[in-house]
Specification:
single chain, Rossmann fold, 19 helices, binds adenosine-5'-diphosphate-glucose, Glyco_trans_1, EC 2.4.1.21
C-alpha cells in the first residue's frame, strides 16, 4: 500500500513540537505493516540545508502552477524516509521558524504557504509525478487539511484521505477574502466546504472532506465531540460518528533509548538504575543545582496555558519548601517564562531554567530528573510523558486526553500490583497539583516503591507497534471501500 503523508514538520528535519515526532516516526513503524510511506513537507531553509549536507541523491520534479506560483518537488531519501520536499522559495525561503518570523510573529501569508502545501499534495495524489499514485493520503493538522478539500472538489479519481488532529486549538481560520485565491470551486464556499462562521477554516474544511478523521488518543477523541472540548468543532466531529477514531501516539524507541542515547551522560536500563544516578548528577551540574539527595522534578514543554505551566510556575516556592529541585526547559508565553525566571532568581541553586528549545537537553532532563510535571488543561496525546516512562522519569499528569490513556496512576491497587507508572490528578488546578506533588514525594521516599514504579514505567509499551497496526488497518479498510 502506498501512503502519501503530508505534514508541516517532520523530525529530525524540522521540529517545533509533537507533530514533528509523529510525522517522523510513524512511517518506519508502518513499513512493518505493508505500508510504503512517502512524506511531503515544505522546503524550509533548514530542510534544504539538511538535504545538501547529507549529499543525498535528489530527483527534481517540476510542479506546474501551485496556486499561481512556481514550485518543484525534490524527491530524496533521508534519515530512513522517502521525502518529497516542496521547494517554493517565495513561500518558504524565510529567516525564522516554520510559522513565525524572527520576532515570533506569524507570517502574514501562512494561509498561502499551507494552502500551497495542501494543493501540491493534492496534485501528487492525483498523479502529478509520473509513475506515482498513492492509495491513501494521510494529512496532519490544519496546515495540510486542505488536501482532502482540493481532492473532494475535483472531479477526477482520487485516493481516500485520512486527517489526523494533533491539536484542535490550531484550526487555520482566515478571513473570507482569501477564498478566491485558494483555487477552489465556488461550491466549496459552503457549510460542507471551507466556510466557517463567515471565515475560511482550513481544519474545518478538511474534517468535512476527508474519509476518516483520527486523533491522537481515545480519550481526546471522546473529549472533542463535547462542547467543552470541541473548540467549536464538536458538532461537526460528532457528526462524523465512527469515522472519528482515537489512536494513541507511540514514540521512536531508537531515538529515545536510555540504553543507547548519545545525548545523555551514562546509559542505563531497568536492571542498572545505579547508572541513572550519573545522569542526575550531570543534570545538577548543567543547571547549577545544589547537590543533594532529594528529588528533581522537571518540565520540558511549550510554556502555555494549554500545558498548565502557569500552575507549576506559581508553585515554585512550595516545591522548594518541600525539598524539591526543579529544572525547566521551554519557551512560550512571556508571563510564564518570567515567573519561572523570577523563581530561579529567588532560588538559583534549586530552580534551573532554560528558556528556549534544545532537543538534546530534553533527553538529558528525562534521563536525570526523577519526575516530569505535565498539568495540561487539555492534551490530545502528549509525548513527554511517554519519554518520561521510557526514561524512568515518573510522569505526574492531569487526567486529560492521552495523559489519562498512557499513565497508570499509583493508587493503592496499582502500587500493590507493581503496575503503577505515574501519578494522575483530576483537575489542572493549583491545589490538585500540589496534592499530586505531595503524593509523588511520599512515593519517592519509599525507595523500593519508587524503583518498582520506575521499572514498570520503563517496561511500558510506548512503541508505535500497536498504533501503527491500527493506522494500517484504517488504510486497508479504506482501500476496500
Ligand atoms: N523547549 C524544548 N526543548 C526541547 N524539546 C521540547 C521543548 N519543548 C517541547 N519539546 C518537545 O516537543 C515535543 C512536544 O510534544 P507534545 O506531544 O508534548 O506537545 P505538542 O503540543 O507540541 O503536540 C501536539 O501534537 C502531539 C503529537 O500528536 C500531541 O502528542 C500533543 O498532545 C499535541 O498537543 C516533545 O518531543 C518535547 O520533548
Amino acid at each position: 500500500m502506498k501512503i502519501l503523508s503530508i505534514a508541516a514538520e517532520v523530525f529530525p528535519l524540522i521540529k517545533t513540537g509533537g507533530l514533528a515526532d509523529v510525522a517522523g516516526a510513524l512511517p518506519s513503524a508502518l513499513s512493518g505493516h505493508g505500508c510504503d510511506v512517502t512524506t511531503m513537507l515544505p522546503g524550509y531553509p533548514v530542510v534544504l540545508k539538511a538535504i545538501e549536507a547529507a549529499g543525498a541523491k535528489v530527483e527534481v520534479l517540476p510542479l506546474d502552477d501551485v496556486l499561481g506560483g512556481t514550485a518543484r518537488l525534490l524527491a530524496v531519501k533521508l534519515s530512513g524516509m522517502k521525502l518529497l520536499v516542496l521547494d517554493m522559495p517565495e513561500l518558504y525561503d524565510r529567516l525564522g521558524g516554520p510559522y513565525t518570523d524572527t520576532a515570533g510573529h506569524d507570517y502574514g501569508d501562512n494561509w498561502r504557504r499551507f494552502a500551497a502545501l495542501s494543493k501540491a499534495g493534492a496534485m501528487v495524489a492525483q498523479g502529478a509525478i509520473d509513475g506515482y499514485l498513492p492509495d491513501i493520503v494521510h494529512v496532519h493538522d490544519w496546515q495540510a487539511a486542505l488536501t482532502p478539500v482540493y481532492l473532494a472538489a475535483s472531479n477526477r479519481p482520487r485516493p481516500k484521505t485520512v486527517l489526523t488532529i494533533h491539536n484542535l486549538a490550531f484550526q487555520g481560520n482566515y478571513p473570507s477574502g482569501i477564498f478566491p485565491q485558494l483555487g477552489l470551486p465556488a461550491a466549496s464556499w459552503s457549510i460542507e466546504g471551507v466556510e466557517y462562521y463567515g471565515n475560511v477554516g482550513f481544519l474545518k474544511g478538511g474534517l468535512h472532506a476527508c474519509d476518516v478523521v483520527t486523533t491522537v488518543s481515545p480519550t481526546y477523541a471522546k473529549e472533542i465531540v463535547t462542547p467543552g472540548g470541541g473548540m467549536g468543532l464538536d458538532g461537526l466531529l460528532l457528526g462524523r460518528g465512527s469515522r472519528l477514531v482515537g489512536i494513541v501516539n507511540g514514540i521512536d524507541t531508537t531515538v529515545w533509548d536510555p540504553e543507547a542515547d548519545p545525548a545523555i551522560a551514562a546509559p542505563y536500563s531497568p536492571a542498572d538504575m545505579k547508572s541513572r544516578l550519573h545522569n542526575k548528577r550531570a543534570l545538577e551540574g548543567e543547571f547549577g543545582l545544589r547537590r543533594e539527595n532529594g528529588p528533581i522534578f522537571s518540565v520540558v514543554s511549550r510554556l502555555t496555558w494549554q500545558k498548565g505551566l502557569d500552575l507549576v510556575a506559581e508553585i515554585c516556592d512550595e516545591l522548594v519548601e518541600r525539598g524539591v529541585r526543579l529544572v525547566v526547559v521551554g519557551s512560550g508565553e512571556a508571563i510564564i517564562e518570567g515567573t519561572f525566571q523570577a523563581a530561579h532568581s529567588r532560588h538559583p541553586d534549586r530552580v534551573g531554567v532554560r528558556i528556549g528549545y534544545d532537543e538534546t537537553l530534553s533527553h538529558r532532563v528525562q534521563a536525570g530528573a526523577d519526575a516530569i510535571l505535565i498539568p495540561s488543561r487539555f492534551e490530545p496525546c502528549g509525548l513527554t510523558q511517554l519519554y518520561g516512562l521510557r526514561y524512568g522519569c515518573i510522569p505526574v499528569v492531569a487526567k486529560v486526553g492521552g495523559l489519562a490513556d498512557t499513565v497508570v496512576d499509583a493508587n493503592y491497587a496499582a502500587v500493590s500490583a507493581k503496575a503503577a507508572t505515574g501519578v494522575i490528578f483530576t483537575s489542572p488546578e493549583r491545589d490538585s497539583l500540589l496534592a499530586a506533588v505531595d503524593r509523588t514525594l511520599e512515593l519517592y521516599e519509599d525507595a523500593q516503591v519508587w524503583r518498582t514504579m520506575q521499572a514498570a514505567a520503563m517496561k511500558a509499551d510506548v512503541s508505535w507497534e500497536k498504533s501503527a497496526a491500527l493506522y494500517a488497518g484504517i488504510y486497508r479498510d479504506l482501500t476496500k471501500e
